Amino acid sequence: MPDAAPVVELRGVFKEFTGRSGRLVALEGIDLGIAPNEFAAVLGPSGCGKSTLLNMVAGFDGPTRGEVLFRGQPVSRPDPRRAVVFQEAALFPWFTVLDNITFGPKTRGVAAAEYRPKVDALLEQVGLRGFERHYPAELSGGMKQRVGIARVLVMEPELLLMDEPFGSLDAQTRSVMQELLLSVWERRHQTVLFITHDVEEALLLADTVCVMTARPGRIKKRLAVELPRPRSLEATTSPIFNELKREVLGLIREESRRAASEERRP
Amino acid sequence: MSGRRIPWFLILPLLLLGVWHLAVEQRWLVEGIVPAPAQVVDSWRKWIFGAPGKSLSPYSGTWVANVLYSGRRVLEGFGLAAAVAIPLGIFVGWNRMVARLVDPSIQLLRPVPITAWLPFAIAVFGIYDASALFLIGLGAFYPIVVNTSHGVRDTNLMLLRAARMLGAGERTILLKVVLPSALPSIFTGLRLGVGVAWTAVIVAEMIAVKSGLGYVLWDAYYVGRMDICVATMFSVGLLGFVSDQVIFRASQVLLRWRVLERHA
After folding, report:
1. What is the pTM of this model?
2. What's the average model confidence in pLDDT over B164-171?
3. A51-82 pLDDT, tens digit each
4. Is the pLDDT of residue B192 over 60?
5. Where would a tag sit more exposed on chain A, N or C end, judged by fewer CB atoms within 10 A?
């Protein structure tokens, strides 16, 4: 990876939540940079604060301490240059597939003549042709997520934030969506921050994988995934893949053992 | 066996009509107070179409005019209430400052029954249409504003975030996310509101103005025309049902996405 200025940079990020049951440290001392065109995955158990991390990069939430920078500027609010694909798709149920996809361009005042060809190409790419007039309620989980991906790609964001986008899909649909994402990524080499708790998913898709600790979330280790691109699902059977998987599983096991022993302490 | 061909909804009304008819015929009730169903139908017919020849009855052929008086008042009062309550409800639901400013007053005034406002309305607006409009508008206002603000407050956070990251400003969010998301609640408010509007119009016309179904109802009671009273009750019920259905049908068209959701 060339040493270009990072698209995203987190410097000493702490995040605390204060609730009725007192303070909760969600993230502790996160330092992370994502280079242009890098597909970065953040892997961690549920409750480790990985979604909180993404929310801060998106601008939905701010850090308690530390800095979140996008192209060298502190992130202060959501911005179409940092597009988000949510776990439950979060489509507007009152809009058709087409209106959901064109929401961004229309809102920003882009002329129809300009976005129409892009939308057509995207519908083709993500396999939504023929579903333009459908409402989200008429779509399966996988189809919804295709719309969720298409509606952000149409804006050609500089950074794609994906918050466990395939987490609620069945195993088969998930594989199909992973291949779809790989093929889409091959066309644009988009900078991606991908949150997941699925080891294989992280290794299959990403250039780098950050393994997070249990709460409070820290980055335990960052590994480079040196699998050749373009990748397909077959990559998951290669020796390099299995080697990496063993390493990551080892890190996770170590982490859960540590967490368990800490819980036992009074 | 298919139970679809049997008009189930007719069974209970026919049964009640039968009991009513019997009760009058068998003199289970004090004589001369409750009219028989047939008599009500006959009076209602004359009230609508007029009696043949020269009729001495003051009600003959005046039904349509009175329905129009009441209907217009409901429409105006309800329209006024919706025009104020929907935007206000959106701001109360959306902006915490507006909510803090306005909501306590709404909640304090809401328990005052619409009937309790009558003397005040007459004192301020006199025995004119304005009195009726005030009462109808006020009565319909509460359910609409409360349901609208609830609907707005219930907007899914993820959808708000999605809109923001897609570049939407406050105006776009209000119009394209918050409003459609609150629309089912707004329609619930409108349906409750139109019900209150019919209640209010009858109360207002009984006392505050000298026309419409409410006026006929009270007038007929004074001159001992229970047949006309009962016919008026049925008329109001029918009109209330029709106006509710109009709003319901409109919601079915506007909320097509939600109908699909329920069948998914």
Report:
1. 0.88
2. 95
3. 999 999 999 999 999 999 999 999 999 999 99
4. yes
5. C
Distance between CA atoms of residues B70 and A183, nearest Å: 66
Residue among B159, B161, B256 whose CB faces A92 most closely:
B159
Give pLDDT tens digits for B122-165. 999 988 889 999 999 999 999 999 999 999 999 999 999 999 99
Contact by Cβ (8 Å): B230, B35: yes
- Chain B contacts of A59, Cβ < 8 Å? 165
pLDDT digits (tens, 9 = 90+) for B36-75: 999 999 999 999 998 777 666 788 889 999 999 999 999 9
> B75 and B137 in contact (C-beta within 8 Å)?
no
B160 to chain A: closest CA residue: A90
Q: Which residues of B touch A (CB under 8 A)?
A: 156, 158-159, 161-168, 172, 176-177, 180-181, 183, 255-258, 260-261, 264
Which of A107, A139, A163 would best serve as a mutation to test chain B binding (most B beta carbons within 10 A)?
A107
| Chain B CB contacts of A92 below 8 Å | 159, 162-163, 176-177, 180
ipTM rounded to 2 decimals? 0.92
Count other Cβ atoms within 10 Å, centred on residue B240: 18
**Average pLDDT for chain A:** 91
The Cβ-side half-sphere exposure at B134, using a 13 Å CA radius, reads: 19
Find chain A residues with C-beta within 8 A of B177's C-beta: 92
Give yes or no for a contact between A67 and A36, defined as CB atoms under 8 angstroms apart. Answer: no
- Say yes or no for a CB contact (<8 Å) between A103 and B159: no
Residues B143 and B88: their CA atoms lie apart, in Å, by 12
**Residue of A75, A103, A143 for testing the chain B interface, max B β-carbons within 10 Å:** A103
| Cross-chain Cβ contact A94/B161 below 8 Å | no
Collapsing DSSP states into helix, strand and coil, what is residue A151?
helix
Nearest to A135 by CA among A166, A98, A89, A103: A98
More confident residue, A48 or A57: A57
The residues, ordered by sequence, that sit 6+ positions from A75 with a Cβ below 8 Å of its Cβ are A56, A57, A58, A59, A62, A68, A69, A82
Q: Do A107 and B166 touch (CB under 8 A)?
A: yes
For residue B264, what pLDDT is reported?
59
pLDDT reported for residue A97 = 97
Q: What end-to-end distance do the CA atoms of chain B give, in Å?
A: 27
Classify residue B63 by burial, with Cβ atoms within 10 Å: 0-12, 13-18, 19+.
buried
pLDDT for position A254:
86
> Which candidate from A59, A90, A155 shows the least CB-CB separation from B158?
A90
Phi, psi of A220 (to 5 degrees): -75, -45
Residue of chain A minimizing CA distance to B255:
A94
Give yes or no for a contact between B135 and B208, defined as CB atoms under 8 angstroms apart: yes
Tokens of residue A40, six digits? 């970065």
